[in-house]
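not sure who needs this but someone in the group chat was asking about histidine kinase from Stigmatella erecta so here u go. i didnt clean anything up, its just raw.
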Amino acid sequence: MSVRVLQVDDSAADQMMVRRALERDPDTRWAVEQVSSAEEALERATASGPDVVLMDFHLPGMNGVELLRALRERCAGRVPASVLLTGTGNERLAVEAMKSGAQDYLVKGTFTPERLRHSLRAALETVRLERALEARRLQAERAERSAREALAVRDELFALATHDLKGPLQIITLNAQFLRLKMPAASLTPALDTRLTSISHAAMRMGELIDHFLVATRGREQLLRRERMDLLALVNSKVRELESMSSRHAFQLRVEGKDFTGNWDSTSLERVLDNLLSNAVKYSPAGGNIFVTLAEGAAKPERQVMLRVEDSGLGIPAQDLPHVFERFHRASNVPDTIAGSGVGLASVRRLVELHGGTIEVKSQQGQGAAFTVRLPQDIPVDRGSPESGAGPSQDMR
């Protein structure tokens, strides 16, 4: 290891003492350059860039503290480590030297060669750490700036994409409405009318999800809009809608109780149902049964309803169960042929928890899965204080 030292001292005896102390170091090779004035020191520091400056406080024309300040100005890009020497142990001077940039302070005649070498090494290490921290700070600032720029580009792209996605949805909605108006009354059977209504509703829901997606990508959360609603009506509508659209699965709705009204956000709970029911369809084989249960819960400590969606599909391996509701996690037994991003169930849990509820899953691989949601019914609606909601997602497990 080689270290370049610039010693600033107008005493020949002190210069000789320092040179001998450093030359006898068995571990480090010290390349010592010696000058006798502050002006010379500034010139040499600028020209050669020493690793450490060892300076006397009493110098002709400029004292050591003034030299420290001048070095910080002259070598602003890379100030060398500095150790100050003085003939008196003045505490005020030591504090002033440290504030001006010195890493250590030694009193002449009181230190050994080992103490001098240790002081120089410690000063070098301190400066090295300071430079490393500064480099990391600058790197973090650059990374943050790049991230902000990338987010700005992403937001612009998402805004354009969502705008373009809405165009085809409007065409689908308009054509469904046109068919209903132009079709002869005799040809508009109840089944066909139901399908046209389902097309219009699905297009409208997709438009809402696109809006929610854009809000989420911009880092803003949707607000819950609690209103008195009947969960049974929503569940019954969703199950009947899926029955009319899917001929591959059998749906069974079980209702246990009478009162399923509560103060909830109907849009958010519709998204919860869409995710759970769509997952049950996606991960169940053709001909499989899907059971939907809606039941009144115990009145203690508060009234609540229980919603359970069970399927007879792939099931979830035991090692994946603790991670089911984590974003971007998909069960290890899901084949590549089944599409999904792994964010749907994370969104479901967030929406349920925002309603003050809970969700849990029970499953065994190859024997299906059962998702159980419990929602309190009587959380008051505070019109003056809207509740914050979760970022949306219609993607599935």
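also Confidence is low (pLDDT under 50) at residues 384-397. if thats useful
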